Amino acid sequence: MSSQDRDQNRNQGQGSGDLLAAIGGIGPLARQLNQVHARLWYEQVHQNLTGPQFTVLSLLHARGAMDQGMLGALANLDKSTVAPLLDRLRRRGLVDITKDDSDRRRKLVSVTESGQELATSLAPAVVAVGDQMLAHFSPQERDQFLALLRRAVQGPQR
């Protein structure tokens, strides 16, 4: 084996450590976690209501009507996601969207009775999916895991 071949093998060995760390890191794990959650949601919660849609309905039910910007911020949705999500919910009769009388550019969003009933009826299944995903953890580990996830998502971008 030539010295060039040995150097190439050594460099590949160093690179493979980074590759293995990358594919076992936060990105692939977050994707897998999301896939498990999405599958359980579809099977056990609702096939035609997404997690973000449930969050929006629940926030409106719990906090009352609010403007679209505040709702997006509380639901941790970016601006490009909020309008189409709300439009889908409006077409299904789950939210009402009106213009603010004092500022016609501002849209106020409220949950309809149907939206309230749907969110309330689905809440136990949503909790059950979370419990199922964390079933292998002790109560203390669940609390710690959720606290660490909250810290991770509040990371460098904010």
Protein model, in words:
This protein is mainly α and about 160 residues long. Helices cover about 70% and strands about 10% of the residues. It has seven helices and three strands. The protein has a three-stranded antiparallel β-sheet with strand order 1-3-2. α4 (about 70-75) packs across α5.
Specify Rg, calculated over alpha carbons: 22 Å
N/C terminus separation: 51 Å
Proportion of beta-strand residues: 5-15%
Structural class: mainly alpha
Physical arrangement of strands within the biggest beta sheet: 1-3-2
Calculate the mean pLDDT score and round it.
89
Low-confidence stretches: none
Count of helical segments?
7
Main β-sheet, in a few words? 3 strands, antiparallel
Q: Please report the total strand number as a whole number.
A: 3
SSE order in H/E notation?
A: HHHEHHEEHH
**What's the overall geometry?**
globular
Q: How helical, in percent, are the residues?
A: 55-70%
Please specify the SSE layout and strand pairing:
Blueprint: H1 3-23, H2 26-44, H3 51-63, E1 66-67, H4 68-74, H5 79-91, E2 95-99, E3 107-111, H6 113-133, H7 139-153
Antiparallel strand pairs: 1-3, 2-3
